[in-house]
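Quiz preparation item.
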């Protein structure tokens, strides 16, 4: 189950979505187990044997687009080793392409579309009580040889009602950052994205309405992660942590008031951050902030419908540096309409803006996004092999740039940013060069294969 993003970044994070599903089921009195086959390094055969030993009534799998074939193979294995079990799949990919996914995976019985916590409870109760599945909102399933899709599930309004993820079911010592095993607590404090970026698939899963947990509820979970699981490194994985700046401030204040000794990271739009907010983040232990900047060209930012300016990006980076935080900026290369000159502007911006780290990815049109519809309409996709939709290797050409040119430009961007003498010197001073070189090398190696 090798995925290129794991190869390049050495990142393997706990499956938060599955842990949430497990938590709501445990709360309802169901016996639940999680097998993180990737983290445990299990082969498909070993996974099958583990399933056979447990002999569950229902087997659930989650998947994003680049892992969908592994997810389908897992469903096949589940049916082979546990033929009487009901198979269920959730995640971003089946949410975007529910009918297509069921057709491609004959052994899949039921798909959960969108947010899964409320749906899975209703689904299992219906199965348990032998009720008609037509009464369960938010699913797609098979009946009498046909595929049936029920009405959409309403979004969960009060996120505080959802129990904390069932981390006790996860192999917490098996997750990695930069190839090193690190106990990492990833926490989701809000759901929903009110913005309109053409490349983002988040809104189809969590909706456009911003829904947030209370500061107390969030910090209660952080405290549990620290005290119960002995985790002191936290990543807030929200799409838009600072949409409600007052709430973000109160979360940081609550961390300070409880004297929690943690290091944490978060992300923000550059137009939704203030220096005052960054100051209290830093005081509360936040060491890194991630900005999705996407391009160094104002023209391309408009095409992306990003809704930010380069001046806002420069200011947000400057403020974070002034309060003593490190800044990661992400950029996309290969947007339709983008020229080589635009890409050079992006590289120059990444270098000149003061970023500590930069991530350069290829425009990847995930199903359900506006860019996916553009790519289909203009015949820009060069493959529909979902396993290649990793954001590392280009799978979409444009009228301006070929696949080969996009690959070459991404490789060039990484070399220009990371092979600067000033950057290398800073990493040596910070004692980080030992892991930086393998990461950059592996990324460039993958790009050369494309």
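Solution:
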């Amino acid at each position: 189950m090798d995925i290129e993003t794991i190869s390049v970044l050495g990142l393997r994070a706990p499956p938060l979505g599955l842990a949430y599903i497990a938590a709501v089921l445990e709360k309802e009195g169901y016996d639940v187990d999680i097998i993180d086959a990737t983290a445990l390094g299990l082969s498909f055969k070993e996974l099958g044997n583990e399933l056979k030993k447990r002999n569950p009534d229902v087997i659930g799998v989650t998947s994003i687009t680049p892992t969908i074939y592994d997810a389908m193979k897992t469903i096949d294995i589940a049916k082979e080793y546990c033929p009487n079990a009901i198979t269920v799949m959730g995640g971003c990919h089946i949410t975007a392409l529910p009918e297509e996914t069921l057709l491609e995976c004959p052994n899949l019985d039921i798909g959960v579309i969108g947010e899964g916590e409320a749906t899975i409870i209703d689904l299992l109760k219906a199965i348990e009580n032998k009720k008609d599945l037509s009464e369960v909102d938010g699913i797609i399933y098979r009946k009498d040889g046909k595929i049936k899709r029920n009405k959409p599930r309403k979004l969960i309004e009060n996120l505080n009602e959802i129990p904390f993820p069932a981390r006790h079911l996860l192999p917490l010592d098996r997750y990695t950052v930069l190839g090193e095993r690190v106990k990492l607590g990833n926490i989701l404090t809000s759901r929903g994205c009110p913005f309109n970026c053409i490349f983002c698939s988040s809104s189809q899963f969590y909706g456009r309405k911003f829904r947030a947990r209370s500061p107390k509820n969030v910090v209660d979970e952080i405290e549990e992660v620290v005290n119960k699981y002995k985790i002191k490194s936290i990543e807030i994985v929200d799409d838009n942590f600072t949409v409600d700046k007052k709430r973000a401030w109160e979360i940081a204040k609550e961390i300070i008031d409880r004297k929690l000794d943690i290091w944490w990271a978060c992300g923000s739009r550059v137009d939704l951050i203030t220096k005052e907010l960054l100051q209290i983040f830093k005081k509360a232990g936040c060491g890194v902030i991630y900005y999705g900047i996407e391009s160094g060209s104002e023209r391309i930012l408009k095409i992306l419908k990003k809704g930010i300016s380069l001046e806002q990006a420069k200011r947000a980076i400057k403020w974070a540096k002034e309060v003593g935080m490190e800044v990661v900026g992400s950029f996309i290369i290969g947007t339709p309409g983008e020229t080589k000159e635009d890409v050079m502007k992006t590289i120059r911006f990444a270098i000149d803006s003061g970023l500590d780290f930069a991530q350069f990815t290829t425009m990847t049109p995930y199903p359900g996004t506006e860019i996916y519809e553009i790519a289909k309409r203009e015949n820009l996709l060069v493959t529909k092999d979902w396993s290649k939709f990793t954001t590392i290797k280009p799978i979409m050409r444009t009228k301006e740039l070929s696949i080969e040119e996009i690959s070459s430009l991404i490789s060039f961007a990484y070399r220009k940013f990371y092979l600067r003498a000033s950057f290398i010197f800073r990493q040596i001073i910070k004692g980080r060069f030992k892991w930086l070189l393998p990461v950059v090398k592996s990324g460039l190696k993958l790009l050369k294969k494309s």
